[in-house]
Amino acid sequence: MKLSTIIQTFEHWLTHREYSPATIQKYTKALARFFSDTGAGKRPDRETVAAWRDSLTAKGYTPSTVNALLAAVNDYQESIDNPAGKAKPLKRQRKIFADPGRELSRAEYFRLLDAARATGNKRTQLLLETICSTGIRVSELQFITAEAVRRHKASIRCKGKCREILLPAELCHRLTRWCQKHHIHTGPVFLSRQGKPLCRVTVWKLLKALCSRANVAWKKVFPHNLRHLFARTFYDLEKNISKLADLLGHSSIETTRIYIMESGAEHQRLLNKMHLLL
């Protein structure tokens, strides 16, 4: 069977199980790489998959990257009813501290807003405020509709799950004025020039364009970091990780813990305040 046919069949399997478009793209790309690297047949054995996993490690890929690529191949094995061909993911010690070099601070977030305002880019400013004040994924931006703004509440459907989130009153006021100005009466608020919901790549580019003017490191500015800032801010105020998990749409609190992880610098300050040395 041709590789293109294998990939297409796997893509249909993922779609049938309601994987997100971004995940489908990532998994099919990883599977194509696996077959290219290994030259394996349609039903790879466990030894081949494990050897590929180990070769990625030897090339210097991080455990998280290796496990993400391996997850795609293991799902492929599941799709062809070949569970014996799965390889175990790499064991990872749970990360204790967030990387301060990638963590977006409140001050940096507001500098991004100032940069958007200074350039007259109202849409980008509203994008930043909407994602950061609600904690939604960039793929969920399409559910911020004119109807949701009028209700002050959005119904989110993602990864086979549904949840409702409340929209801040001031955000609704600003989005209402945006909709009135651009004659948006129904459907998604954030649209491309072609009238379609903004895609992930477009949002990413809009945010990256602010980095230089806002004096914020390029590697810190991406939509998911706004979601992390929402999570840390909410937890600082509420200290309720279960409620936060529900707001973020997480099935596991362990996932939510990653979002509220403090940086090593904050932990160092705490240690210094303990005064346990003579």
Number of strands: 2
Counted by DSSP, the helix tally is: 14
Write out the strand line-up for the largest beta sheet, numbering strands in chain order.
Answer: 1-2
Shape: globular
β-sheet strand percentage: under 5%
Rg from alpha-carbon coordinates: 22 Å
CATH class of the largest domain: Mainly Alpha
Q: What does the largest sheet look like?
A: 2 strands, antiparallel
What's the number of domains?
Answer: 2
What is the chain-wise order of helices and strands?
Answer: HHHHHHHEEHHHHHHH
* Class from secondary-structure proportions: mainly alpha
Mean pLDDT: 91
Report the CATH architecture of the largest domain. Answer: Orthogonal Bundle
Helix content: 55-70%
According to CATH, the fold-level topology of the largest domain is hpI Integrase, Chain A
CATH superfamily of the largest domain: Intergrase catalytic core
* Terminal Cα span: 72 Å
